[in-house]
Amino acid sequence: MDTSLINVPFLIDTFFVALSGVPVALLVTVVSLLIAVPIGFFLALTRINQIPVINTIAKIYVSFVRGTPIIIQIFVLYSFIPLMLNGIFKKYNIEYSVYDINPLWYAFIIFAFNTAAVLVEVFRSALSTVDKGQLEAAQSVGLTNAQAYRRIIIPQALVTALPNLCTATVNLIKATSLGYAISLYEITLKAKVAANVGYNYVEAYIDIFIVYLILCIVVEQLFKWWEKRLSRYKYANA
Amino acid sequence: MLEITNVHKSFGKNEILKGVDLTIEKGDVVVILGPSGSGKTTLLRCINFLERADQGTANFGDLKVDLKGASKKEVLDVRKKTAFVFQNYNLFNNKTALENVAEGLIIGRKMPKEEAYKISREALDKVGLSDKYDFYPVQLSGGQQQRVGIARAVALNPDIILFDEPTSALDPELVGEVLETMKEIAREGTTMLVVTHEMGFAKDVAKRVIFMDGGVVVEEGTPHDIFVTPKEERTKRFLRRVLPGQYDYEI
Ligand SMILES: Nc1ncnc2c1ncn2[C@@H]1O[C@H](COP(=O)(O)OP(=O)(O)OP(=O)(O)O)[C@@H](O)[C@H]1O
Ligand SMILES: [Mg+2]
Questions:
Q1: Kindly report the CA angle at B161 between B158 and B165, in degrees rounded to 5?
Q2: In chain B, N or C: fewer CB atoms in 10 Å?
Q3: What ipTM goes with this model?
Q4: B105-144 residues touching A, CB cutoff 8 A
């Protein structure tokens, strides 16, 4: 009988199984961010400019997402969306079973929904650090508001936002591990399924742990490098 | 030429501008004096649409706009004819001195980059910053930053440059270099509307001086009219306060 505490060959094999879930985790992260960034930015603008109604909706949305565990958000959306779609499909006589929808689509929506709320506050605080005079100077030399934001304000706000954006991205990557709850074959679920066969859970969890750790460290380093590049103007020495 | 008529502006219940009229001929330097809170900044901001007036018109000769109801296009047109030098410089922090000057030309005026950079270098040379093209604002002193601000305005070759207390955020020892730069561009025939507390500049450089108080133009005339033979009591009182010793005190 094998008395060693952990099954090393299994540990190694399963590491690669877990690793094979990285593309899905990254895909969910990237797509969710691509959806969440513009929504978060737009809502941040409505918050800053105190646009009536949308401003209030944004506020409620943010506190709703902040005040509930993400796993509950997943359960709520995962059961609510099919219900809603079923109704729509029935109404328009669309022959498609909502239960055939790839869980990836749910993951995109759920994580974008969650991340956008985080980003509203990230962008709002970053934009508010840029002096109003920057916009006025841009306007005075003939830039439109859109040009002023694109060329002057966003580049400066981004430098402030990057550390928080990095945290949000890393949190999102980690949160994709909850994808197992909607049968999303990402890192966690793949390794767990492999472990089910011989009950090698400890090995699987160690693998999962290491894969997320590597992933998050790499992402953090990328953000650090990006921040350094973007903030050159702040620390340039004469 | 710029003719401003009947500018009104309130913030909430506070009426800050109560019908201001102003005419500036091409090539003139006009200085606006007045106590704090008299509406000088607000007037300049209304001309450049950084603030929407409640009433009033601006006539640039070939362009006449309603300061209240101007369309987006008209606002952009007015901004092509005007440039603004800010009290706090407001240089674009993420751009070098050269990029700061070129931004309005390349993006606002859609000028080819080559040409824009050529004009921008000339403008920076003019304000004595030939060796600072690639410096970011954080690397420049206040005086240097304000001179970049002036170069940014000059490069646009506007009909008129609006200056809002360009030296009042500066350390005293840096005021001189900025005033010198302003005198230099005045000598070149730039039309300038300058809000300042620098009485020396007003006396030496201004063609006309306008004294504002309480949201109206109280008195205007040549520097001699205002500084030597002021007619209005409010003007005299203001001058006594800002130039003590040169006017007799009344008990
Ligand atoms: N955005 C604003 N909202 C509310 N009140 C304002 C605003 N801008 C200016 N004011 C008020 O308008 C009045 C005139 O301000 P303004 O800045 O035009 O005066 P000023 O003549 O430039 O004074 P200073 O010499 O101190 O610069 C002040 O009482 C100021 O508090
Ligand atoms: Mg002022």
A1: 160
A2: C
A3: 0.93
A4: 107-109, 135-139
Residue B2 CB less than 6 A away from ligand 1: no
Residue B87 CA: nearest ligand 1 atom is 27
Residue range of the domain that includes B136: 91-157
pTM (two decimals): 0.89
**pLDDT by 10s per residue, chain B, length 251:** 899 999 999 999 999 999 999 999 999 999 999 999 999 999 999 999 999 999 999 999 899 999 999 999 999 999 999 999 999 999 999 999 999 999 999 999 999 999 999 999 999 999 999 999 999 999 999 999 999 999 999 999 999 999 999 999 999 999 999 999 999 999 999 999 999 999 999 999 999 999 999 999 999 999 999 999 999 999 999 999 888 776 655 44
> Taking the CA atoms of chain A, what radius of gyration do you get in angstroms?
22
Domain boundary among B138, B157, B176: B157
Ligand 1 within 6 A of CB of B37: yes
Select from A131, A144, A238 the Cβ nearest to the Cβ of B139.
A238
C-beta of residue B2 within 8 angstroms of C-beta of residue B23: yes
Question: Best of B14, B15, B42, B45 to mutate for ligand 1, by most ligand atoms within 8 A of CB?
Answer: B42
CA of B38 to the centre of ligand 1 (A): 7
CATH number at B236 reads 3.40.50.300
